[in-house]
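STRUCTURE REQUEST FORM
Protein name: Site-specific integrase
Source organism: Priestia megaterium
Requested output: structure tokens
Priority: standard
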Amino acid sequence: MQDFSLVNIGTEVRERKGDFHKVVSLMLDTTYYDALEERNEHHQRKNEDMFSDFTDEEMMYYYVHQRKHIRKDRERKENTKTEYVRILLQFYQYAVESESFLRQDVDHYIEEIIFKNLRPWHIRNYQAYLSTALLGKGGKPYSPATLDAKMTILKSFMKWLHEMKYIQYPLHKEILSTSLSEQEIPNRDLYYHEVKQLLDYYKDHPINYGLLTMLAMTGLRVQEIANASWGDVYLDSLSGHYRLRGVGKGGKKFDKLLHPSLYERILAFRERRHVSTSLNTSDQGPLFPTKDGGYYQYKKFK
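Status: completed
Returned output:
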């Protein structure tokens, strides 16, 4: 029996009932994964194809949430899942909007299942569309790096669909290479004089000054800083310096020195936000709270 909420994903996209964020939220809800696993086990016991009665929406959902490691901390992180969902839904929406064309273009059209009706030329057309459509920043085409990331995930998904015998054609082989040249790899490094100019410009702005100093002096990633808690800050009794503990990319732990000048700017930030500046290891509130006192979304970190 299909889960009602997962079935609704297709309806939402087809009829444009809800906004894209609502559909993404549905796809990120892990509530339905165990039910899909039970159906898979049922098929296996009967020597049937695992995904014989799955819908396109369920295949995307299962692919994003599928468990590959016995340890949960080695599974895909939530941010990674969100990126996968957005990219796969973008492709799915394109396919749904092309449904009337597919009906005329494909012999023996299969109702209710878009992916099984796709042919090699449809994949080539989508890649051409994605590379020229004005969907990037500033109403421009996607950058080479963004296009490469999208096509890499789509290619992996298409390969999986074929391996799972959900689709007949190896559509992943039709995706042209989007690998980047050395010149196309974005350079996000700032030189010393550029950092100094930024800090000097914001020296009278405690919020931006604190955030920028934290980025410049610790080398931590934006996501690591956005997720840091005030309770992760401690005073090292041996050195007499303040430090920040946390978990970074790939589950690796870090322990960063907070230079005295940086620590002062962190306190100034927190004073401006009207939150505690007294160390408290049990305080799980954000190190850098937003106006509302919550954690920053790392992609909107400002």
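Reviewer notes: DSSP finds twelve helices and three strands in the chain. The longest strand covers residues 242-247.
Form closed.
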